[in-house]
Design a protein that fits this description.
626 residues; alpha+beta; 5-stranded antiparallel β-sheet; 21 helices
């Protein structure tokens, strides 16, 4: 028999049960609220405080910033003729990560569709072969590129989660293709292969301007010459375009404003392409005729200091950059140093006459053609007897130049050489330009001061010698030299008096006439002036017996100088000739004659002005050192 529970007790038990269930409910609710608060906090942290990181991670998976190449600035000569231009080309690239190379005999099904965005596109061997032929590459090279894996900075292969090598996202297949050839590649419609517009540098003047212009690498960065020195100006500024790309590399949409590229500036040089061609032709011929190791020539505008031509031999073709001899890259006229020899004598005479230690009537006894000093014997080619300043230059007397140098304080001689730029870089901003070597005058011994009087014991570049001779062409004023076209002459400085400049110019004109050492420098219809130099080269700390430098530095026309031309022939064959009057002066004559005609400079002498000496009267410099 069931016992009946009183109603009061039943209500009490039910009440206790309700209180227990309510506690559980609140516990669960509190737990859920706590979890919600945690999620909310995490969401705030990610969306507010860590937004930049998440946005970057998301964009890394679908957004790409494309580089919009700027057109590299053109380089022209002073008349606007192009010397370096950028031509549009196409470069072909691939994404190995999105490609799977199939074994031989297998092809991709016509109805193939990826199961996920991570599935690579199958590529048959037949398609690879067609791609290789269109690229003009061996099939093996294309396969190697399409199989390229990602690597660490130490060169170790990066692997995926499944342990397989991770393919790279980007690799160039072939750079800078002809646009039509690239179009043929893209017409194959091979998945994972794309084209990108680029520019390739082209040099119309080729080897004639190579050492001045230089060249760029495949990425359009200057490597030599003015391409390197003015790279920032020529490069311009690249633009950008941020887009969304799918896994195949196709652009879906732009997601930001396109930043257009800013093309590089056009660089107008002081060089005249016509004169440059003439100078290169003649220096190249001389190097070949005398089997020389090399040669250089500089043509300056005497009024402005602008460089109208600067040529070297041997040279190279900057349009074929695969195999360039490093020795041919040097701009010898600016970077290479040599002892100037007798071409320095006019500066020695000018320094002494400017200082007042000698004048036009001062004479020096050079007999008997040899002079002992400091344990050395200085010699002339002949016994010239008593000479004045003019005679010392005309006969190129080493003894006379030494005695002139010793009439003045060491500091006076040093000041003249320093004033015309010897021992200082020419200031062209050209890579590798040399300052030469001019030791402090306080360290000079008398024998050293004397030998510097005829061009030994110091070193110069050919550009420095051309620059130094400005004072004889511009009424004693020395102007800065420039490879960039100038709208007006740059301010110069007075080094010697106008009267002295005219006097030395007259002495140097006699050097080119019968009785002088540079009769081969004469030009039909024009008066010319200059000085020859023949110097031994140093080798292993001593002077070599069979290595010489023959040079000539001169100006024209004498009545109103417009050109300064410096020529240097390095190591001419001693069996042919070593003397500056024979190897360098004829180059001067040919270049000056052609240049004066190109510039329309009127003659200042009769057309029958050429006076050649008899063979027995022909004189040469003495390439002698103590």
């Amino acid at each position: 028999m069931n016992r009946m529970i009183p109603p009061t007790q039943a209500r009490k038990r039910y009440s206790q049960q309700l209180k227990l269930e309510r506690w559980r409910v609140w516990f669960v609710v509190a737990g859920l609220m706590g979890l919600f608060a945690i999620l909310l906090g995490r969401g705030l942290w990610l969306q507010v405080f860590n937004e930049e990181f998440l946005q970057g991670q998301g964009e890394a998976r679908y957004a790409r910033t494309l580089r919009l190449e700027a057109n590299r600035g053109m380089i022209t000569d002073r008349n606007g003729e192009p010397l370096a231009i950028s031509t549009p080309v196409q470069s072909i690239w691939a994404s190995p990560r999105s490609i799977e190379l199939l074994p031989a005999g297998q092809v991709r099904p016509a109805d193939w569709e990826p199961e996920s965005d991570k599935d690579p596109v199958p590529l048959s061997q037949d398609e690879v072969g067609k791609l290789a032929r269109a690229l003009g590459m061996p099939v093996a090279d294309v396969v190697k590129k399409l199989s390229e894996t990602r690597r660490t900075h130490k060169g170790e292969t990066i692997k995926d989660k499944d342990g397989k090598p991770s393919r790279t996202d980007f690799i160039w297949l072939r750079r800078q293709m002809n646009p039509q050839d690239a179009k043929n590649v893209m017409a194959l419609n091979i998945p994972g292969v794309y084209a990108q517009a680029e520019y390739r540098r082209y040099y119309p003047a080729g080897e004639i301007m190579a050492q001045i212009i230089g060249y760029t690498n495949i990425d359009g960065r200057g490597q030599e010459g003015l391409e390197l020195a003015r790279d920032k100006v020529l490069s311009g500024q690249t633009g950008s375009r941020t887009v969304i790309r799918d896994r195949r590399g196709y652009i879906v949409e732009d997601i930001s404003t396109i930043v257009p590229p800013k093309d590089g500036e056009t660089l107008a040089l002081s060089i005249d392409r016509r004169i440059q061609y003439l100078a290169y032709r003649e220096i190249n011929k001389a190097v070949s005729d005398f089997d020389a190791a090399g040669g250089s020539i500089v043509v300056l505008d005497a009024r402005t200091g602008e460089i109208l031509a600067l040529a070297n031999s041997p040279s190279y073709n900057p349009n074929s950059r695969e195999r360039i001899d490093p020795a041919k890259k040097r701009n010898r006229a600016i970077t290479d140093l040599y002892e100037p020899g007798s071409t320095l004598k006019p500066l020695t005479v000018a320094a002494a006459m400017q200082a007042g230690t000698i004048n036009a009537k001062t004479t020096f006894n050079t007999s008997p053609g040899a002079l002992s000093m400091g344990g050395f014997t200085i010699k002339d080619t002949h016994n010239y007897g008593v000479l004045n300043a003019e005679g010392i230059l005309v006969h190129s007397s080493n003894i006379g130049a030494l005695k002139v140098a010793l009439t003045m304080p060491r500091e006076t001689q040093w000041n003249m050489l320093n004033a015309v730029g010897i021992g200082q870089r020419p200031g062209l901003g050209f890579p590798g330009e040399s300052a030469g070597k001019l030791r402090p005058f306080k360290t000079w011994y008398p024998i050293e001061q004397g030998t510097m009087g005829y061009g030994y014991g110091l070193s110069v570049s050919l550009m420095q010698m051309a620059k130094a001779y400005q004072i004889f062409a511009t009424s004693g004023i020395e102007h800065p030299v420039s490879l960039i076209k100038q709208n007006a002459p740059m301010p110069g400085k007075q080094v010697i008096s106008p009267e002295l400049a005219l006097t030395i110019r007259g002495y140097m004109e006699k050097v080119t006439q019968p009785g002088g050492t540079a009769t081969r420098a004469q030009v039909v219809g024009y008066r010319v002036a200059g000085k020859t130099g023949t110097a031994r080269k140093q080798s292993g700390g001593n002077y070599a017996d069979k290595k010489y430098v023959g040079s000539f530095v001169g100006l024209a026309p004498v009545s109103n100088p417009r050109l300064i031309v410096a020529v240097m022939i390095d190591e001419p064959d001693i069996k042919k000739s070593i003397y500056g009057g024979a190897v360098a002066a004829p180059v001067f004559s040919s270049v000056v004659a052609g240049t004066l005609r190109l510039l329309g400079i009127p003659p200042d002498a009769p057309t029958n002005n050429i006076l050649l000496p008899s063979p027995q009267d022909t004189k040469e410099d003495e390439a002698w050192v103590p």
